[in-house]
Amino acid sequence: MTDIAQDQTVPSHLTAQPSDYAALLKPRVMSLSIFTALVGMVVAQGPVPNWGLAILSTIAIALGAGASAALNMWWDSDIDGLMSRTSKRPIPAGKVPAAEAFGLGIVLSALSVWLLALSGGYLAAGLLAITIGFYVVVYSMFLKRRTPQNIVIGGAAGALPPVVGYAAVTGSAPLEAWLLFGLIFLWTPPHFWALSLLKKADYEAAGVPMMPNVKGDAVTREEIWRYSIILVVCAPFIALVPLAGWLYAATSIVLGVEFLRQAWNLRQKADTKSAGRLFGFSILYLFALFLALLIEHWVGIHG
């Protein structure tokens, strides 16, 4: 277990900069989650009753995402220092004490849920609380260091933001919202397993049982290929409900073909370049699908 007081000797009030506390919130990593939540709000059935409240809801969801990141960094501070990808994060770098990161995460968690309850309703606030708790407790504390399926199950936390956004506007979470959840949930394994192939040595050093470290690279590449097929086949079906239209369908099909091509290349080649290409393209893929949904609803061509 991470020792909250392990680095209390660090005079954070003298060494920490505002940018260090901002880095605890993983703004670049969490930006995609915030974007999907915003899209969930836009595509929700029915008009937004108050744009001021909608903006407050977006801020609340962003604060919740930042809170999750800060608490994740607090808990993982011991292994972050062992991995080159994370060794320069504020806690292992000695810029911010773990206790301060923990306190920031708790305060932002409470603030985000309270603010969303006021602006988006109790259902949205409850879903946000579940998202934070699932990411920190279920994924970070229980799954990440115990099973190579950590990212498959833990992916539920990253898939919930559009449902939270949908509920913030409508006060409900119908099937359409959960279809967006399913899209991200299926996308998560091939995305993160491609990263794990790139950072296998890091995870080995930290003792994190990611798929390549436990099952080997060949099995990981095969699993990426299988999940990619499921993702690419399922993604266009969202266009069969009023949630999406022809622009989304075309985007999901065209980019899906490229996703499969890259996943196949990775399956055939044991090189890091193929893994890096798929990892980068997977981010573009998910962003483009949600952007297509956003454009359709802004222009009124969905369904």
Automatic annotation (TrEMBL):
<feature type="transmembrane region" description="Helical">
    <location>
        <begin position="96"/>
        <end position="116"/>
    </location>
</feature>
<dbReference type="Pfam" id="PF01040">
    <property type="entry name" value="UbiA"/>
</dbReference>
<keyword id="KW-0812">Transmembrane</keyword>
<feature type="transmembrane region" description="Helical">
    <location>
        <begin position="54"/>
        <end position="75"/>
    </location>
</feature>
<keyword id="KW-1003">Cell membrane</keyword>
<keyword id="KW-1133">Transmembrane helix</keyword>
<keyword id="KW-0808">Transferase</keyword>
<dbReference type="GO" id="GO:0008495">
    <property type="term" value="F:protoheme IX farnesyltransferase activity"/>
</dbReference>
<keyword id="KW-0472">Membrane</keyword>
<feature type="transmembrane region" description="Helical">
    <location>
        <begin position="163"/>
        <end position="187"/>
    </location>
</feature>
<feature type="transmembrane region" description="Helical">
    <location>
        <begin position="122"/>
        <end position="142"/>
    </location>
</feature>
<dbReference type="InterPro" id="IPR044878">
    <property type="entry name" value="UbiA_sf"/>
</dbReference>
<dbReference type="InterPro" id="IPR030470">
    <property type="entry name" value="UbiA_prenylTrfase_CS"/>
</dbReference>
<dbReference type="InterPro" id="IPR006369">
    <property type="entry name" value="Protohaem_IX_farnesylTrfase"/>
</dbReference>
<comment type="pathway">
    <text>Porphyrin-containing compound metabolism; heme O biosynthesis; heme O from protoheme: step 1/1.</text>
</comment>
<comment type="similarity">
    <text>Belongs to the UbiA prenyltransferase family. Protoheme IX farnesyltransferase subfamily.</text>
</comment>
<feature type="transmembrane region" description="Helical">
    <location>
        <begin position="224"/>
        <end position="257"/>
    </location>
</feature>
<comment type="function">
    <text>Converts heme B (protoheme IX) to heme O by substitution of the vinyl group on carbon 2 of heme B porphyrin ring with a hydroxyethyl farnesyl side group.</text>
</comment>
<keyword id="KW-0350">Heme biosynthesis</keyword>
<feature type="transmembrane region" description="Helical">
    <location>
        <begin position="29"/>
        <end position="48"/>
    </location>
</feature>
<protein>
    <recommendedName>
        <fullName>Protoheme IX farnesyltransferase</fullName>
        <ecNumber>2.5.1.141</ecNumber>
    </recommendedName>
</protein>
<dbReference type="InterPro" id="IPR000537">
    <property type="entry name" value="UbiA_prenyltransferase"/>
</dbReference>
<feature type="transmembrane region" description="Helical">
    <location>
        <begin position="278"/>
        <end position="299"/>
    </location>
</feature>
